[in-house]
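Let's practice the habit of predicting before peeking. Look at the sequence and jot down your guess about where helices and strands might fall. Then scroll down.
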Amino acid sequence: MHVLILGGTTESRRLAELLAPRWRVTTSLAGRVTRPVLPPGEVRIGGFGGADGLARWLREHRVDALVDATHPFAATISANAALAAATARVPLLALRRPSWAPVPGDDWRTVGSLEEAAGALRGLGGSRRVFLTTGRMGLAAFAGADLDAHWFLVRSVDAPQPPYPARTETLLDRGPFTLDGERDILRRHRIDVVVTKDSGGAATAPKLTAAREAGIPVVVVRRPPVPEGVAVAETAEDAVAWVAHFSEDATEDATEGSGDGDRDGDGAEGSG
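Done guessing? Here is the structure:
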C-alpha cells in the first residue's frame, strides 16, 4: 500500500506519523519554506508539473491512495489533485481542518479574497495599524498607494519578497502561537485591526481570541471550496480510517488474484 500525501501542514505531518509504521508513505512538499519540518517516511520536494505531471507520478510510483493535506487555501494544488486522481484512477481524500466560527464578542468582516480584504481596510477609514497574518504570498493585494497610510505587521515563516505594503515590519515566526504571545503582539505594536485567512485549526486561532478581548475587528478571508466530488476528512485519524478502507480492498483484490497464473507475469513486466 503506497500513500502519497500532498503536505505542508500540521495535519499532513500527523497523518504521516500515523501511516508510516504500517504502510509506505511519501509526503510531497511544495518547497516554498526554506526549512520545512520533515515528516516520517519518504519526502519529495517540488512541483509535479500540473495535473498531468501528478497523474503520471501516481502511475509510475504505483500510488494506491492520494491525500490532499495542503493548506485550505492551496486551491490550485487541490484542483490539480482532483484532476490527476481522476485520470490515474486513484482514490482521493481532502484532509481539511474545520473552519473557524465566530463567537459572541467577535467583530468579523468576512470577505472572499485578499483583494476584498484590502478593500475592507479602506472601508474602515483612517490610518490603521494592521496585523497581517495571511502569509508572505499575496501581499501585493495590500501594496496599493491608497493603503500607504496604514502600517502593517506581516507575520510569516520566511521573509516576504516585494511587492508588499510601503510601511511594513516583518515578524518571522512559525506556529503554533500562544494566547499570551498574541496578546503581547497586539499590545506592543498597538494593533487596531487583524487580517487573516480562515485556515482553521488551533495553531493560529489564539489571535482571534486576543482580538476579541481587545475589541479589535478581524477581516477574515473565506477559504475556497474543496473540488466537487472529493471526499473530506477533518482529522488525521479519520484520514487513517479512510486509507485503511482502501488497504483492505487492495488486500482482497490481491487475495482473489493470487491463484491467477498471469499475475507473476504482470509483476515481472512492471518491475522494469
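How did you do? Confidence is low (pLDDT under 50) at residues 253-272.
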